[in-house]
Design brief:
The complex is a heterotrimer of chains A (147), B (421) and C (508).
Chain A lengths: L1 E5 L9 H9 L6 H6 L10 E5 L2 E5 L8 H5 L5 E3 L6 E3 L9 H5 L6 E3 L6 E3 L11 H5 L5 E5 L1
Antiparallel strand pairs in A: 1-8, 2-3, 4-5, 6-7
Chain B lengths: L1 E5 L3 H10 L7 E6 L11 H4 L6 H4 L4 H6 L2 E5 L3 E5 L4 E4 L4 E3 L2 E4 L3 E3 L12 E3 L3 H10 L5 E5 L3 H12 L3 E6 L11 H13 L3 E4 L3 E7 L1 E7 L4 E3 L3 E3 L3 E3 L2 H4 L10 E2 L11 E3 L4 E5 L4 E3 L4 H15 L12 E6 L2 E7 L9 E7 L6 E7 L2 E8 L6 H9 L7 H4 L11 H8 L4
Parallel strand pairs in B: 1-2, 1-7, 2-3, 7-19, 9-16, 10-11, 10-16, 11-12, 18-20
Antiparallel strand pairs in B: 4-5, 5-6, 8-17, 13-14, 14-15, 20-21, 22-23, 23-26, 24-25, 25-26
Helix pairs in contact in B: 1-9
Chain C lengths: L13 E5 L9 H5 L5 E4 L4 E4 L9 H5 L5 E5 L12 H13 L4 E2 L14 E3 L20 E3 L8 E4 L2 E4 L7 E3 L3 E3 L9 H14 L3 E2 L16 E5 L8 H6 L2 E5 L10 E3 L6 H7 L7 E3 L9 H14 L6 E6 L4 H10 L4 E5 L8 E2 H6 L4 H14 L7 E5 L5 H10 L3 E4 L1 H6 L22 H4 L4 H26 L14 E3 L4 H7 L2 E2 L3
Parallel strand pairs in C: 11-21, 12-13, 13-14, 14-17, 17-18, 18-20, 20-21, 22-23
Antiparallel strand pairs in C: 1-4, 2-3, 5-19, 6-22, 7-10, 8-9, 15-16
Helix pairs in contact in C: 4-14, 8-10, 11-14
The chains are: A alpha+beta (147), B alpha/beta (421), C alpha/beta (508).
Bound molecules: flavin-adenine dinucleotide and iron/sulfur cluster (3 copies).
One iron/sulfur cluster binds next to α3 of chain A.
Chain lengths: 147, 421, 508
C-alpha cells in the first residue's frame, strides 16, 4: 500500500504539512475557519520534529503489524480491508490511551479538550488523491508512494 | 481445517484475526462461558458508574462473527480437553472436535483466605457480570472497601467512586499499584486519589468480613474495623487452568506452558493470553503476563501458527496504561532495576505537579519506563524496549518532556521511516 | 533596543504588513525567517514582526499559507534631497555606527545603463525567409576552445579525413553555462543542482574557487574547475576530473579585490573540499601572487596544460575593466583557449558595496571591445569569448552572442531560478532560500532535486526562445550569429556608445 515517507535531508521545518493536515481534517476545510472559528481546533496528525538542523514530519506508518491496533481495547482502531490504512473510529474510542503506549512512532494524538477523551491519527486523507501534507510540502520532503 | 477456540476475549480475537485472512475456508468455532460477544474487560469497572455503557464495552460485535464465519457458542462452559480424541467437552455434554485448539480461557480472580466471605455484598470484579451485579446493588450502597490496591482494585474503586460510593482501598504492600509503579509513582497516585477523597490504607489487610448475612464492615489485621456495605476482593487474577486443562496432560506451571510458537506440550493445542505462561522478554523466563495487548499478541501468534505460518513470539513484557480519576500513568517493562548492578536509572519530576518520568537502562538498552501524567508518545519507549534499540549517548534526551524521534540514532530513522515497517 | 544603539534601524527599509484577520498564527513565517524578524507573542496569541530586521527576502510571504503577508517598502521617506539619496544617508548612519566597510551580496543594483535594453534584434521580412524552429533543425551547439588557423584534409582509401590536429574543445548543447559560484559561498545542494543540470543539458558548471566536493566528481565531464589566487582545493585529481580549467584573475562584482570566506562558513565538508583547516578563514589574495605579467600568466596556463597533458582547454577569467580589450589580447597571446569576461553587474556572495557598485564596466561594452580587438589583431579564432555578469533572459544571451560572445555564464539567473529574491544578504551566510548558506538548517531548504528541475527548465525555456530569435533572424546555427552585429540596432544611444558596441542605430 502507499504510505507517506518523510525525507529528513530536505525537510526545512516549515510545518506547512501540519497546517494542511489541520485544514483537511477540519469541518469546513477552510483554512481561516479551521483556525479561527472551529473550536476546539482540529489536531494535526502529522508532527514536525525538530532538533537543531534535523527536522522531519512524522505521522502514522500504517504498520504491517500495527501495535496500536493490538493494544486497542475497544476495537476503535481497525484496518481497512486487511492491508489498508489503519484508522480510528472516534465514536468507539474511549480515550484509554492504550494505543499511545503501544505506537512505536508516537503517532497517536491525544485529545481531551472536548470533555471527552479521544485520539486522532493519520488517515491518509480519504477524501483526497494525495494526502494533504504531501501536497502542501514546499520542499518535497514527503513522499506518498508504494515502497 | 477445524479451529476450536476456548475463550472469547483478547487472545481469542487475536487468533481469529490472524487465522481468517490466511484460511478463508477453515471452520472456526468459539466456546465462551460468558454470554457475551467479545467485550472490553478493562472497561467493566467504569461500567459500574455508567461512564461507559454497553456499546462502549463491545469489542467485537455480531458483525465480526458473521463476517469471519465464526460459529460462536456463548454462555457455554468447556470442561475438559481430550487430546487423544481431539475433542473438547462442554458442560452440556457436547463434544467439539478440533484439528487445532487454542485455549484462551483467561484468568480467575484470586480470593484470599478472609473469613466470612460468604456474605451478601461481597464481590470479585473481573467480568461484565460482576460489574452488572455490583451495579444492581448500588442504590443500597454507601460505603465500600476494596481489598487490593493493584490495577483491578484501583479501577474498581474508581468505578464505585464515580458512582458516588465512599471507597476505601486496603492494600497489604506499602503502596498501592505496587506492581505497576515504583514508590515515587505510587506516591503521586496516592496523594492524588486521597485528594479526590478516596480512602487508602496501606500495609494492611482485611482478615474478616463482618456482618450478619450482609457485609456491614471489615476487620483489619491490626484489629481495627471499617464499616462498609460492600466488599470487593481484588487481589489479582491467576490463570484459569483448572476448568479445562486438568487431566488433559497439558503441562502447567502457573499458567499453561507455551513455547515461542504458543504451542502447549500437547500437539496441536495452543494457549494464549492470561491463561498462558510464555516468554517474558526482559527477565528471559516464562511468565504469566495478564495484560490485554500481550493477550492479543499471543493470540495472534498462536493463530498464525495454527493457520500454518511459522511465526515466533518475541516475548512479552509488562505494559500498562492506567487512568484513575483523570490521572494517567504508562509503565513499560521494569519499574525498578531487577538487580543493583549494570543498570542506570534516569528520573525527572515535573514540570507539571504530577509529572514524573523514569527510565531504566541496562547498558545502552532501555528496559523500563514510567510516565506519570505526561504520557504523550510513550509508545516510542515501548518500541525501543521491544526492539532492544541501542540508544547510545542519547539516553538523557529520552527523558525530555517533548519525547521525539530526533532523540533516536539517525540510523534508526533511516531504517524505520524509509520503508514499510 | 535603544535608538542610540542602532541609529539606522528606525529607518528600516521594509514593513512586514500582516493582515491579522487572515493570520492563523501557524508561525510558518516565524520559523522561516533566518533574521528572526517575525515572532510569536504568546501573551495575546499573535504573530508580529520587527520591521527593522526584515531584509526584504520575501521568504515569509512566499510560504504563508493564507497569503496574509505583504512586504512593503517603508513608505516613510527622508526629506527629499537631490544629492543625498536615502541610500547614502543610511550608509553613512551604518558606518558611523560600525566603522567598517559596508558589505553586500549579489551584483551591482545601481541604475547604470543596461545596454542590452538599448539594443534591438533584427528579424527577416520578405527578402530573406525566417525559419520555423518547430519544423526545421536549429543548431544551438557550439564549441569553446582554440580553433585551428586552417583545416586540412587528406584522402585515404578514397575517403576524406581531417589532417589538422584540433585543439581540445568544450561542447555546449546550449550556449549558456553556470558561472563560477564556489562551494562555501553557495552550498553543496546548489552545486549538486548545477552539476546535474549541466550534465543533463549538455553544458558546464564552474566550481568557482572553492574546490570540487568528492560527491560531485561524477559530474566532472561537465565541470569547469577554477584555479584562483587562494588555490583552494586544487590538486591533481581536481584538474584531471574536469572538462576545462579556469584561471580566475578577477570577477565583475569586485574587480581587483580578493575573497574572504569567514571561518564560520568553513564547515568540515567545506574544509575537506577547500583543503584548509575547519574554521579557518579562507582568504583569496587580490592578485594571483605568481602572476604579475602576461608572461607569468603564460607560465601558469602552460603549467596547467602540461599537468593535464594538453587534453583540456584553459580559460582565463577577468573582470570587465577599462582596458579589458588589451588585457584580453594578452591573455589570448599567453595561450588561453577561452577568455571569460565578467561585467559590472556580475554577482558575488560577498563584496564591499562601494567596490561592487563603482568598479568595472558593463559587460556589453567590454564584450564588444574585446571581440573587436581580437578580430582586429587576427587572433579571435585562438580563443573563445565567454561573457558574464548580468544576463537576465534569453534576449540578453542572443544579443551578447551577436556582440561577439561564444557563450555566456549565468549566476544570478540560476540563483533566481531556485528562489533567490535578490535581497543581497548573501554575505550574512543566512540565505533564507538555502542558496548562499552552509548552515545545515538553511541549506536543506534547497532540495537538489527541485533545484535541478528548475535550473533545467530555465535552460530549456531559454533554449527554446533562443531558437525563436534565430528563426526570426533566418539563422539556423548559433555559431552564425556570433559577432553578427549587423543584426543589432541601438536605441537611445550616443554615437560613441554605438561606435564601441559596433552597431548601427535603429532606423539605419
Ligand atoms: C477489571 C479489569 C481491568 C483490566 N484493565 C486492564 C488494563 O487497563 N490494561 C490491560 O492491559 N489489561 C487489563 N486487564 C487485563 C485484561 O483484561 C486481560 O489481560 C485480558 O482480558 C486477557 O484476555 P484473554 O483473552 O487472555 O482472557 P480473558 O479476557 O480473561 O477472557 C477469557 C475468556 O475465556 C472464556 N472462558 C474462560 N473459561 C472458559 C471455559 N471454561 N469455557 C469457555 N469459555 C471460557 C471467558 O468467557 C472469556 O471469554 C484488566 C482486567 C480486569 C479484570
Ligand atoms: S498508529 Fe503507530 S502503531 Fe498504529 S499503525 Fe500507525 S504507526 Fe503503527
Ligand atoms: S485511546 Fe481509543 S483508539 Fe486508542 S486504544 Fe484506547 S480506545 Fe483504542
Ligand atoms: S511541509 Fe515539508 S518541509 Fe515543511 S515541515 Fe512539513 S515535511 Fe518539512
Amino acid at each position: 500500500m502507499k504510505r507517506v515517507y518523510p525525507r529528513e535531508e530536505v525537510c526545512m521545518g516549515c510545518k506547512l504539512c501540519e497546517v494542511a493536515c489541520i485544514v483537511e481534517h477540519s469541518l469546513s476545510k477552510d483554512i481561516i475557519k479551521a483556525y479561527k472559528e472551529e473550536r476546539p481546533r482540529t489536531l494535526s496528525r502529522a508532527r514536525v520534529e525538530e532538533e537543531g538542523p534535523v527536522s522531519f514530519s512524522i505521522m502514522c506508518r500504517h504498520c504491517i503489524d500495527p501495535e496500536c491496533l493490538e493494544a486497542c481495547i475497544t476495537g476503535a482502531l481497525y484496518r481497512v480491508n486487511g492491508d489498508g490504512p489503519v484508522l480510528v473510529d472516534p465514536r468507539r474510542c474511549v480515550g484509554c490511551w492504550m494505543c499511545v503506549m503501544a505506537c512505536p512512532y508516537g503517532s497517536i494524538e491525544l485529545d481531551s479538550r472536548n470533555g471527552r477523551r479521544v485520539i486522532s491519527k493519520c488517515d491518509l486523507c480519504p477524501d483526497r488523491r494525495m494526502p494533504a501534507c504531501v501536497d502542501a510540502c514546499p520542499n518535497r520532503a514527503l513522499f506518498y508512494e508504494e515502497r | 481445517m477445524r479451529y476450536l477456540i476456548i475463550g472469547n476475549s483478547a487472545a481469542a480475537i487475536g487468533a481469529v484475526e490472524s487465522i481468517r485472512p490466511r484460511d478463508r475456508e477453515g471452520e472456526i468455532t468459539i466456546l465462551s462461558k460468558e454470554p457475551y460477544y467479545a467485550y472490553s474487560r478493562p472497561l467493566i469497572t467504569e461500567y459500574i458508574a455508567d461512564v461507559f455503557r454497553d456499546e462502549d464495552l463491545t469489542y467485537r460485535g455480531p458483525d465480526f462473527y458473521r463476517e469471519n464465519r465464526i460459529q460462536v457458542h456463548l454462555g457455554i462452559k468447556a470442561r475438559a480437553v481430550n487430546p487423544k480424541n481431539r475433542v473438547v467437552l462442554t458442560e452440556d455434554g457436547t463434544e467439539h472436535p478440533y484439528d487445532r485448539l487454542l485455549i484462551a480461557t483467561g484468568g480467575t480472580p484470586i480470593v484470599p483466605p478472609i473469613k466470612g466471605l460468604d456474605k451478601e455484598g461481597v464481590f470479585t470484579c473481573t467480568t461484565w457480570d460482576d460489574s452488572k451485579a455490583i451495579k444492581a446493588l448500588l442504590p443500597r450502597v454507601k460505603r465500600a472497601v476494596v481489598v487490593g490496591g493493584g490495577l483491578i482494585g484501583v479501577k474498581a474503586a474508581e468505578g464505585l467512586y464515580e458512582a458516588g460510593v465512599h471507597v476505601t482501598i486496603v492494600e497489604l504492600l506499602p503502596h498501592i499499584m505496587g506492581r505497576i509503579l515504583d514508590a515515587e509513582g505510587a506516591y503521586i497516585f496516592e496523594a492524588y486519589l486521597k485528594g479526590k477523597g478516596l480512602g487508602i490504607i496501606t500495609g494492611e489487610t482485611v482478615v474478616e468480613a463482618l456482618g450478619n448475612g450482609r457485609v456491614e464492615g471489615v476487620r483489619l489485621a491490626s484489629g481495627d474495623t471499617l464499616p462498609c456495605d460492600f466488599l470487593i476482593i481484588a487481589v489479582g487474577v491467576r490463570p484459569n487452568v483448572e476448568e479445562v486443562v486438568e487431566g488433559s496432560g497439558i503441562r502447567v506451571n502457573q499458567g499453561i506452558l507455551v513455547d515461542r510458537h504458543m504451542r502447549t506440550s500437547v500437539p496441536d493445542v495452543y494457549a494464549a493470553g492470561d491463561v498462558a505462561e510464555g516468554d517474558e522478554m526482559l527477565v528471559r523466563e516464562k511468565r504469566v503476563i495478564a495484560l490485554w495487548p500481550v493477550a492479543y499478541r499471543q493470540g495472534k501468534i498462536a493463530g498464525l501458527n495454527m493457520a500454518g505460518e511459522d511465526r515466533e513470539y518475541e516475548g512479552g513484557f509488562p505494559q500498562n496504561t492506567v487512568s484513575v480519576l483523570g490521572l494517567t500513568t504508562i509503565t513499560i517493562g521494569f519499574t525498578e532495576p531487577p538487580e543493583p548492578n549494570g543498570y542506570k536509572v534516569l528520573m525527572r519530576r515535573g514540570p507539571g505537579e504530577n509529572d514524573y518520568k523514569k527510565l531504566i537502562f541496562k547498558g545502552d538498552v532501555l528496559e523500563g519506563a514510567i510516565l506519570v501524567n505526561s504520557i504523550d508518545r510513550a509508545g516510542i519507549l515501548t518500541g525501543l524496549i521491544r526492539a532492544r534499540t541501542e540508544i547510545g549517548s542519547n539516553k538523557e534526551r529520552l527523558l525530555d518532556t517533548r519525547l521525539g524521534l530526533t532523540a533516536l540514532p539517525r540510523a534508526w530513522r533511516k531504517e524505520k521511516l524509509t520503508q514499510p515497517v | 533596543m535603544a535608538l542610540g544603539d542602532r541609529w539606522s534601524n528606525p529607518f528600516c527599509n521594509f514593513i512586514v504588513d500582516r493582515d491579522q484577520d487572515r493570520c492563523i498564527q501557524c508561525q510558518v513565517c516565524v520559523n522561516q525567517c533566518p533574521y528572526e524578524a517575525n515572532f510569536y507573542r504568546a501573551l495575546d496569541d499573535t504573530v508580529v514582526s520587527d520591521h527593522a530586521l526584515c531584509t526584504g527576502c520575501h521568504r515569509c510571504k512566499a510560504l504563508c499559507p493564507t497569503s496574509c503577508i505583504t512586504i512593503r517598502l517603508n513608505p516613510s521617506e527622508f526629506r527629499p534631497h537631490a544629492v543625498w539619496t536615502e541610500r547614502d544617508i543610511k550608509n553613512a548612519y551604518l558606518q558611523a555606527e560600525t566603522g567598517s566597510i559596508i558589505l553586500t551580496g549579489i551584483g551591482c543594483d545601481r541604475d547604470y545603463p543596461i545596454y542590452f535594453d538599448h539594443i534591438l534584434l533584427d528579424a527577416c521580412q520578405v527578402t530573406n525567409p525566417s525559419i520555423d524552429p518547430l519544423r526545421e533543425p536549429m543548431e544551438l551547439r557550439t564549441y569553446l576552445g582554440r580553433k585551428p588557423e586552417a583545416v586540412e584534409f587528406e584522402f585515404r582509401d578514397g575517403k576524406p579525413r581531417l589532417k589538422t590536429q584540433l585543439y581540445p574543445q568544450l561542447t555546449l548543447e546550449v550556449p549558456v553555462m553556470f558561472s563560477a559560484m564556489s562551494y562555501g559561498a553557495v552550498n553543496l545542494n546548489f552545486c549538486e543542482g548545477l552539476s546535474r543540470v549541466a550534465t543533463e543539458a549538455g553544458t558546464y558548471w564552474n566550481t568557482g574557487e572553492g574546490g570540487l566536493h568528492p560527491d560531485l566528481y561524477q559530474y566532472g565531464k561537465h565541470t569547469i574547475v577554477q584555479v584562483a589566487s587562494g588555490r583552494f582545493g586544487v590538486n591533481k585529481d581536481y584538474l584531471d576530473v574536469a572538462a576545462a580549467i579556469e584561471i580566475k584573475i578577477g570577477q565583475g562584482a569586485k574587480p581587483g579585490i580578493g575573497g574572504h570566506l569567514p571561518g564560520e562558513k568553513v564547515t568540515a565538508e567545506v574544509s575537506r573540499t577547500r583543503m584548509i583547516p575547519v574554521g579557518s578563514d579562507a582568504l583569496s589574495p587580490a592578485p594571483q601572487h605568481d602572476i604579475y605579467s602576461i608572461e607569468d600568466l603564460r607560465l601558469l596556463i602552460y603549467a596547467l596544460k602540461e599537468a593535464t597533458e594538453y587534453t583540456k582547454p584553459v580559460s582565463v577569467k577577468i573582470a570587465a575593466v577599462h582596458n579589458s580589450a588589451a588585457i584580453a589580447s594578452g591573455i589570448v597571446r599567453a595561450g588561453a583557449d577561452i577568455v571569460a569576461i565578467d561585467g559590472l553587474r556580475g554577482a558575488t556572495g560577498a563584496a564591499p558595496a562601494m567596490i561592487r557598485d563603482h568598479v568595472g564596466i558593463p559587460i556589453e561594452l567590454a564584450l564588444a571591445s574585446v571581440d573587436q580587438r581580437l578580430r582586429d589583431e587576427g587572433i579571435r579564432h585562438q580563443a573563445s569569448i565567454v561573457a558574464a555578469g548580468g544576463f537576465r533572459n534569453s534576449a540578453d544571451v542572443v544579443k551578447a552572442i551577436a556582440l561577439g560572445a561564444d557563450a555566456v555564464y549565468i549566476g544570478t539567473a540560476a540563483m533566481v531560478a531556485v528562489g533567490c529574491t535578490l535581497c543581497q544578504k548573501c554575505y550574512t551566510g543566512k540565505c533564507p532560500w538555502g542558496i548562499t548558506t552552509n548552515e545545515p538548517s538553511l541549506a536543506k531548504r534547497l532540495n537538489p532535486d527541485i533545484a535541478a528541475e528548475r535550473l533545467y527548465n530555465l535552460l530549456r525555456g531559454w533554449a527554446l526562445e533562443i531558437k525563436d530569435f534565430m528563426g526570426a533572424m533566418g539563422i539556423n546555427a548559433i555559431e552564425s550569429l556570433r559577432g553578427n552585429r549587423e543584426r543589432l540596432r541601438g536605441l537611445h544611444l550616443t554615437d560613441r556608445e554605438l561606435n564601441i558596441l559596433g552597431i548601427k542605430h535603429a532606423g539605419e
